[in-house]
Structure formats: structure tokens, C-alpha cells
Amino acid sequence: MTVLGIETSCDDTGIAVIKATPTLVGVKFDILSNVISSQIKIHAPFGGVVPNLAAREHLKNIEPCLKTALKEASINMRRIDLIAVTIGPGLIPSLLIGVNFAKALAYKYNIPIVGVNHLEGHIAVALFSPERGISNSKFLISKQKFLPAIALVVSGGHTQLVLMRKIGDYKVIGETRDDAAGECFDKVAKLLGLGYPGGPKISAEAEKFEVKGSKFEIQLPRPMIKHKNFDFSFSGLKTAVLYLVQDNKDKIKNPEFIQELCKETQQAIIDVLINKTFKAVEKYKAKTIILSGGVAANTELRKQFEVQSSRLRQGFGGQAKFKIQFLVPTKNLCMDNGVMIAMAGYLAAKRDPDFGRGKSWNRIIANANLRLN
Ligand code: KG4
Ligand code: ZN
């Protein structure tokens, strides 16, 4: 089955073509094309995404992206078997462009269409990460021995801990009460005048710090780390940075101060994310940890998740040994893209008994507040 994936929930227009081949033990995915039109330059002067500007850019870029995706995959619309499109959550002006475009294609070419939850897309692409190799992907889908899994989806718009009992069966066990982790990176970077998107800028500054060591002994709070629940809060961390900057106007021009501040901001976010995720892993006896979403591209976060997972595997610190695996997409698939939507769309279509009956395009509706459960 050849699947066209369309993603426009935020500021990236993503269109991809993938081929799904069912095998005796599961399914194999081949990525035929993965086109992303980034709007970073448009939103950078504002330090964040401006919804109406994002929609205008999606409208301008979506057709050229489709043409390129089809060309790179050496395919035409008549050979597409399924259209998968993000229906939410996201910015409604952006979502509507992708959804209406996808529905028009489905109608024109008479192709079944499936609506995808953006967060399920982030999770699905981790399951089929090329790093794991095809045989593992087959295994994951067929035997489901990797379940239950705990997925941490961290991006500019979301920070959610999700318990996955089956593919398609999700329960959000914790989420942010205010800013998302990526939003915190972005807002701190804006405050420090580092530019947008903030995650890569903060992490680049933090990396420079490694070499030199602590000089200013900056300490930031780890919000809600001691709370028993799995919720997060990152707006207080941003405010703590704001006060620190206001109180240290003399030091703010010192690159070493900025580097140390970035390192501490990044580590505060990582500490909270790791603490909550691994608490959930123990509580739900998870066999798999999934890290996904734009913030999952952060090298230090990936490294510390890997270290913590291997500690659990080895029974470090007197803990019982856990048979646990850690899944994270390759960095280029952490950020929003059409591949993840195509993969999740294929899985959703396969589990829908009504799939392919009637005019499926009629049932597709964008929902900015769509939930996973
Ligand atoms: O998943 P994504 O592309 O879009 C949303 O669904 O929000 O995530 C974008 C977010 C931005 O907040 C960006 O700052 C963050 O991911 N991000 C990073 C890194 N690369 C992107 N955060 C930390 N470290 C990174 N290397
Ligand atoms: Zn996303």
C-alpha cells in the first residue's frame, strides 16, 4: 500500500510518500519521499509561530510540496492507495489548510482518506525508526511484546506522558499545565536574544559550557519534580530565568554566563522529563520507553534517556533489573513531518473496520484540541 502523509498542524508543511508492505510477521515501511517546507525564517522575527502567517505559508507551499514529494517518489496521485492527514491537535488556521487540501485530493482521485492525531504520528515514527532496522519493526507490530510502553511526546506545543497498552490504545497519564518543554526552550532563547527556534540555540550554547565548567553557580528550579503525579509545568522555569537575567544585567553580555545559563536551563528541563518518565515506567511496568517530538532532537536529552534506560536494564543502584528498550526517532524525524503521519495513518486505517467504505473524505474534520484518549 502506498500512503501519502500530509502534515500542517504548526509551522512545517510536510508531505511524504511511504510504501507499507505487510509481511508474515508484521509490516515494513519504505520512505519514498519526505518533503518539508520550513517557515523558520517567517516566524523567527516574532520568536514564535504566528498562526495566520503560518496558514498563509502552508497555502502557498502545500501544492509545490506535493509535486516534489510525488516526483521524488517517482509516482503519481493515481498510484496512491491512502491519504493520511493531521486533523489535530494544532493551530486551527494551519490544520485547515492541510485537511481541506487532503480532502480535495481524496475527492478528486477517489482515494480513501484517514485523519491522524499529530501525537500518534510522533509516537508511530519512533516505533519504526530506521535505526532499529526492519526486523525489529516487524517484531514490534506483530507480537506487541514491547507493550505496555510509556511515550514522552515533547515538542513546541505539547509535553505529554502517554501510556500505550496497544497500538491505537492510548492514555494520557500526565501533561503540562502551562508551557510545553519546547516552548520553554523557545521563550528562554527569546529572552536571551538567541533566536528561534530556541531548542537548538540553547543546546548549542550549553555544549560550549561543557569545556569550561561552572563559574557562576547558576541554579534553576525543577518545577513539579517532587509531585507524585505525572504532570509538568515549565512557565515557572522561564520566569526564573527572566528574574535571573534582570538581577544580573552586568553579566548578561558575558558569553560564559549565557553558556552556563543555557546549560542549566537545558538540564532543569531534562531532569524533570527524565524523573517523571522513569517514575511512570516503574509504575506501569513498561517494557518500552519512547521519546519523540521536536525536543527529542536534543542530543543531551537523548543521551541521558539512553543512560537511564541502560541503568534500569542493569539493575543499577540496587534496583531490580528491567527488560526495557528505549526508542527514539532519528533526529530528522523528530520534528514535524509527513512520514510520521503516513505511518500512523496506515496503522489507523488497518484497525478501522469501516475503513474504505463510503466517502471517507466526508468524515474528516480538523480539531485544534483533539485528544489522544
Ligand atoms: O515537534 P515540533 O517540530 O513541532 C511541534 O509539534 O511543536 O517541535 C518543535 C519544537 C520547538 O520548540 C523547538 O525549539 C524544539 O522542538 N526543538 C528542540 C531541539 N530541536 C527542536 N528543543 C531542544 N533541543 C533541540 N535540539
Ligand atoms: Zn509535533
Strand content: 15-25%
Bound ligands, named by name, code or SMILES: 5'-O-[(R)-(carboxyoxy)(hydroxy)phosphoryl]adenosine, zinc ion
Q: What's the CATH H-level superfamily name of the largest domain?
A: ATPase, nucleotide binding domain
Count helical runs: 11
CATH class of the largest domain: Alpha Beta
Q: Please outline the major beta sheet.
A: 5 strands, mixed
Low-confidence stretches: none
The spatial strand order of the largest sheet comes to 3-2-1-4-5
Radius of gyration: 21 Å
Alpha carbon gap, first and last residue: 28 Å
* Amount of helix: 40-55%
Per the CATH scheme, the topology name of the largest domain is: Nucleotidyltransferase, domain 5
Overall strand count? 10
Order of secondary-structure elements: EEEHHEHEHHEEEHHHHEHEH
Which whole number gives the mean pLDDT?
91
- What characteristic shape results from the CA principal axes? globular
The chain-level structural class is alpha/beta
CATH architecture of the largest domain: 2-Layer Sandwich
Please indicate the count of domains: 2
